[in-house]
Specification:
By secondary structure, this protein is mainly α. It is built from 14 helices and 2 strands; from the N terminus they run αααααααααααββααα. β1 and β2 form a beta hairpin. About 35% of the residues are buried. The structure holds fe (ii) ion (2 copies). The site of one fe (ii) ion has 5 residues, from α5 and α8.
């Protein structure tokens, strides 16, 4: 695990406090952005900024919730009680991340119920990575190491995002993601240093998850539709390709310690660039999976719909309780 990332999260957190204390009164949106201050829910903001954030935060929230499925699939089959407890805690964290993020989106004037509907009827997307199946226990390790690892690399810069509620949610999320990455890495480390069959299982998981993880950073910069404006608004701080490079550079040394081989014959240190050259993921495959044609798209959304329907009584009970409580408060 890269401790530098956690240090960056802590620096962002302390800068956030400093910025809040120094907040100028009556500044315009552009002044706030230029001064690296945070936009808060009551501030005036361009409609396109608000819409961009809703789309991004909602997609992020949906990814956390759908992302519980591939690993949830292994909770009942974890190889020991300890592994089961750790995995259960990790999957619950993801539910929590979804909730912080829906709450952050709600500060922009949308309702969580509407966002959930948009996910369930396909108007909003979630990360394409969760449309791949978890075939073996080693996949749970590979997801923690690579998928949560890629998520951290993506999310650490979001701790400095210009929208206050999103930035603050990201600080907490990143701290938890770092635990997720470590637990995945530890699972793979144990397997990779176990029997020959366990080592092979770990290698097979890395072989299958490597390129989909690289694709998590999105299309290459040349084809990325939302990037430029998001950069100007300081929602996004680094381009897709910059983040992808950062992720590859981080993984190479970690794979060496695992004793596993990254499945890329083109992977080599480039002295001039001070970074690794690597083979890009198959972006045509990424687009296919985003459009709904990945190995598990249908299964994931069907499962989510069923879970949502089965949870209707919980929502009704919570609403009835809230009504009763409100009436009791008024009466008192
Ligand atoms: Fe998460
Ligand atoms: Fe995670």
């Amino acid at each position: 695990m890269d401790d530098a990332l956690l240090t960056q999260v802590e620096a962002a957190e302390s800068d956030l406090r400093t910025a809040a204390a120094a907040r100028l009164a009556a500044s315009t949106f552009d002044e706030v952005i230029a001064a690296d201050q945070k936009i808060e829910p009551r501030d005036a903001m361009p409609e396109a900024y608000r819409k961009t954030l809703i789309r991004q935060i909602a997609q992020h929230a949906h990814s956390e919730i759908i992302g519980m499925q591939p690993e949830g699939n292994w909770i009942s089959r974890a190889p020991s009680l300890k592994r089961k407890a750790i995995l259960l805690a990790k999957v619950q964290d993801e539910a929590g991340h979804g909730l912080y993020l829906y709450a952050a989106a709600e500060t922009l004037g949308v309702s969580r119920a509407d966002l959930v509907d948009a996910l369930l009827d396909g108007r909003q997307k979630y990360s394409s990575i969760f449309n791949y199946p978890t075939l073996t226990w080693a996949d749970v390790g590979a997801i923690g190491w690579l998928v949560d690892g890629a998520a951290i690399v993506n999310q650490v810069p979001l701790c400095r995002c210009s929208y206050g509620p999103y930035a603050r949610a990201m600080i907490r999320v990143c701290k938890e993601e770092s635990f997720h990455q470590r637990q995945g890495y530890e699972i793979l480390h144990t397997l990779a240093h176990g029997t020959e069959a366990q080592h092979a299982m770990a290698q097979d998981a890395l072989d299958r998850w490597w390129y989909p993880s690289l694709a998590m950073f999105g299309p290459p910069d040349a084809d990325s539709t939302h990037s430029e404006r998001s950069m100007a608004w300081k929602i996004k701080r680094f381009s897709n390709d910059e983040l992808r490079q950062r992720f590859v550079d981080m993984c190479v040394g970690q794979a060496e310690i695992l004793g596993l081989r990254i499945p890329d014959d083109g992977l080599r240190w480039n002295e001039q660039r001070g970074a690794y050259d690597f083979t890009a993921p198959d972006y045509a495959e990424l687009m296919r999976v985003i459009k709904g044609d990945g190995p598990c798209n249908r299964q994931r959304i069907e499962h989510r719909r069923r879970a949502h329907a089965e949870g209707a009584w919980v929502r009704e009970a919570a609403e009835a309780y809230a009504r009763k409580h409100a009436t009791a408060t008024v009466a008192a």
